[in-house]
Design brief:
Rossmann fold, 164 residues, alpha/beta, 4 helices
Length: 164
Amino acid sequence: MIDLGHRDIAFVGRNSTYSVSMERLHGYMECLEKNGITPNPDWMIETAISLAGGKDGMSRLLDMDRRPTGVVCYNDLIATGALSELGNRGLKAGEDIALIGSDGVASSAYCNPPLTTVALEPERIGEVASEMLMKRLKNPDAPAMKFLLKPKLIVRKSCGLTRN
């Protein structure tokens, strides 16, 4: 979104009971700061991790006097709810406001407009987890292991840019 010129970017899906939500929120904040953008705490929307939570979060953003031009959602489920609220307001993702989800669920390609998402490759995560478990079982006293998979950005119309 920053590369597309957005500087007013919100985060929907902050939920302090989910560690992954907080990790993604911190990543969002770090990215803004690295690009010289001060995160707006009013745009870090605490909500349920659900379709209804995405709808509610987007509604709260749209009711603000100063709206963001882009929204990063904790996951594709929340982003789908946010897309619904945009439609209810006569707005369209990718034209009136940029929207990005995360997780890369298959249904995100069938949203209207299709949802830009950060795909996490759950099959590969499962593979790596099994490999790590087998190594741990063979050597229980080995040092802790950490493996970080690089996500893949799948650009679709909801962010306002499409790539062929």
